[in-house]
Structure formats: C-alpha cells, structure tokens
Design goal:
280 residues; 9 helices; alpha/beta
C-alpha cells in the first residue's frame, strides 16, 4: 500500500506490518529513503522513485535491525542513480567487530511477541510479515540473526549527533537509543511530524513507546526526551500512522501494559496503567 502526504512531501510504503518512508517524493530535492526493510517492498519503492523521476538520493534507516535494512541492498543495486548510504556511527563499530550487536534474551523475545500481537497489518497477514523477515535473515545475515554482515555497499556518512537531514526542508535527526543503541528518529518541528522507527509504535490509535528495548535506562531517557516534542502526526516503523494532539505525551509508556491482547502476555513483566483488580 502506497500513501502520500503532500503537505510533508512524504510517501509511506506499507507491506504487512512494516513501513518504509520516502521524503521529497514530489519536489525538486533528492529522495531520502528511510527503512527499506524488506525486499518485497523494493518494487514499490522503485515505482515511486521512477514515477516522480527522482535521481540520486540518500538511503538510510532508523536502526540496524534486519526488518529495517534487509531491503537496502536490493534498492541500492536496482536504483538507476547513485545513492548515498548513511548509518548511525555504531553500525561502523558493529561491522568492524568493535561493538557487539545486542542479541535478544528470552525475556525480550517474550516482549517482542506481545508487541507483535498488537500490530495491524496493512495487507495480508502478520504471518506473511514473519516470512518476509525470515527471508531477510537468510538474505542479509546468512540465516543467523545478530551476526553482523559485511555491508554490500559503501557508507557515505555516519550519523553521530543531532543534525539537519541533508537535502530536506526542515527534517532533523534525533538520537533515540533504547530499543537499540543505534536507534534514531526523523523529526520535523514545523510540521510536528515524527518518523519514529521502532522507538515509538502505534496501537489502538495511540502511540506506544516500545517495551522491546535493549537498554531500559536509555529507553526511559529517550521516552522523556520525545515526550517533550510536540507531535501531531506519527509515522511508526510498524503499525498505522496516527494523527492528533500531543501524541508523544499521550503515548503508552514502554514500562506499562496496554489494553488489548498484549496485556495477557505482559502482565507478568510490566506494571499496568489499569488496576489489576479490573483486569480479567
């Protein structure tokens, strides 16, 4: 599914429960492709770029997890114009073997299940999404998650600090460690728009700071940081886009259960916003 947001010059390409975003899809600036995460989205991405006759641009991601990067080699290879590749600076350390990419624990896998059951697929089913993700593991990681691959393209720049996004009108990089150490978001202060990756998801028409996080202390700090930002439209890495007032302030915390099926999974791990006596 392809959705356009003309006021932001932003295009959302959704497949399963995964979102890819293209900035500058319909202006004179080069395209910024964010989170080309599954290879089955490649044709749609190239279709948008071809339709609007976009030339060279930037290929980047919100964090270095397989479901956000496994489509990047295909886009890089098939795009007819040169693309700059930009990653968080920690990815350089990952691929050099200087920093170990954090593997999931049993508890985190349990939390991941709770997050997954809350996601609303844009098309087909969540199970198809799992097939796509597993295919990404095979394609990029040789089938073994968290073994960092040798990058199949040169990296032009490493994000290291908050900064304006090059060749855009008003977008900024916000560093948001927690879900992963290399997580970052794209924020437009004037339009109050946030591309949040997996730092901030959506469920039941509300934001949800991701309870699946590698570092609880960092996640809490990031949550406090993002709650200070006025956000009127939220573009998550997974789940539907939502609009409204004070979206980050109203979002569920990463450290509480949310209403819905996930509460049954998370009830032994996280406190609840609702008193326990009211839960079935």
């Amino acid at each position: 599914m392809i959705t356009f947001y003309p006021e932001l010059q932003l295009c959302r390409i959704s497949r399963r429960i995964y979102n890819c975003y293209i900035l500058n899809y319909n202006n004179d600036l080069p395209p910024i492709i964010i989170d080309a995460g599954i290879r089955s989205q490649t044709n749609s991405i190239l279709q948008v770029l071809e339709t609007y006759r976009k030339g060279s641009g930037i290929l980047t991601c919100t964090h270095f997890h397989v479901d956000h990067i496994s489509g990047m080699p295909s886009v890089f290879r098939r795009h007819p114009y040169p693309l700059e590749v930009r990653f968080h600076q920690l990815v350089k350390a990952y691929t050099a073997g200087k920093v170990q990419h954090f593997p999931p624990t049993i508890k985190l896998l349990y939390v991941m299940l709770a997050v997954w059951v809350e996601q609303e697929p844009a098309d087909k089913s969540k199970w198809d999404y799992l097939v796509d993700t597993f295919s990404g593991f095979i394609h990029l990681f040789g089938g073994v998650p968290y073994i960092v691959p040798k990058l199949p393209f040169p990296v032009t720049h490493w994000w290291s600090q908050p900064c304006p996004v090059p060749q855009t009108e008003g977008w900024e990089i916000v560093l948001t460690p927690g879900h992963s150490a290399d997580s970052l978001c794209f924020y437009h202060p004037q339009k109050q728009a946030l591309i949040s990756g997996d730092t901030l998801l959506t469920t039941r028409n509300q934001g949800w700071f991701n309870p699946y996080h590698e570092n609880a202390k960092a996640m809490k700090k990031t949550e406090e940081q993002l709650r200070q930002l006025p956000v009127h439209i939220l573009f998550p890495g997974h789940g539907p886009v939502i609009e409204g007032d004070r979206l980050t302030q109203k979002a569920y915390s990463a450290f509480e259960r949310v209403p819905g099926q996930s509460r049954y999974i998370l009830r032994c791990l996280l406190p609840s916003r609702t008193p326990k006596k009211n839960l079935p």
